[in-house]
């Protein structure tokens, strides 16, 4: 179907994590204006579109693999201290949109077991609880995520600047479309796993114990 001239360019990332009996499984993808750009399967990240040169992309791949391995190890550690006999499913959905008039908007939403859990308010770099009613894990996760520049200012910069610059480089509206961007797209995946880490800590500390 033809795309409306008023439709925004969009870059979106979806990252899913399933935690069950101390094990973690990761999968997800990213898309640039409807085209698949990245795939995440286990510890492997694949760049489908050539958005970064091979040497830079190799470093990103290693960074993501290292971080996910670290996350997986922490989940195992926490599960030994406070076993959980049911499966936790966490989904992070983030990205940005660039409109023809030059304005942009960004978003980051998190669900836990299919229910809205947290969201990141990009303009003032703050996390907000979305879980209906009182939820000690959500409250704890917000408190933890607000402690670190990586999950506040760095995430804000990625969504407001890095992500939007990628779209500007691909946009024909600017008159200078580029086939290759050197922006570190996979930084979003790393930030996503850091967010998951904060929630995992909350889940394991608050289940059967006190936050």
What is the general shape?
globular
Mean pLDDT: 78
Instruction: Round the Cα radius of gyration to an integer and report it.
Output: 18 Å
Low confidence ranges: 174-185, 207-211
Proportion of strand residues: 25-35%
Label the CATH architecture. Answer: 2-Layer Sandwich
DSSP, total strands: 8
The run of helices and strands is: EEEEHEEEEHHH
At the fold tier of CATH, the topology name is Murine Class I Major Histocompatibility Complex, H2-DB, Chain A, domain 1
Name of the CATH homologous superfamily: MHC class I-like antigen recognition-like
**Count of domain modules:** 1
Number of helices: 4
Kindly report how far apart the N and C termini lie.
51 Å
Helicity, in percent? 25-40%
Please outline the major beta sheet.
8 strands, antiparallel
**CATH class division:** Alpha Beta
Structural class: alpha+beta
């Amino acid at each position: 179907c033809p795309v409306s001239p008023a439709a925004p360019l969009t870059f979106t990332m979806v990252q899913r994590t399933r935690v069950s009996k101390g094990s973690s499984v990761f999968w997800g993808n990213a898309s640039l204006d409807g085209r698949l750009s990245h795939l995440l399967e286990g510890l492997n990240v694949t760049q489908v579109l050539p958005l970064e040169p091979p040497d830079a992309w190799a470093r990103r791949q290693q960074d993501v693999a290292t971080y996910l391995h670290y996350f997986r190890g922490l989940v195992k550690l926490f599960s030994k201290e406070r076993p959980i006999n049911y499966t936790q499913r966490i989904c992070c959905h983030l990205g940005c949109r660039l409109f023809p008039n030059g304005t942009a908007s960004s978003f980051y939403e998190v669900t836990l077991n299919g229910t809205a859990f947290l969201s990141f308010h990009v303009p003032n770099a703050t996390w907000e609880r979305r879980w209906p009613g009182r939820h000690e894990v959500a409250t704890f996760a917000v408190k933890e995520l607000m402690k670190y520049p990586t999950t506040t200012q760095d995430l804000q910069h990625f969504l407001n600047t890095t992500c939007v610059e990628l779209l500007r480089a691909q946009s024909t509206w600017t008159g200078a479309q580029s086939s290759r961007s050197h922006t570190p797209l996979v930084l979003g995946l790393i930030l996503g796993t850091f967010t998951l880490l904060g929630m995992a800590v909350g889940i394991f500390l608050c289940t059967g114990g006190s936050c």
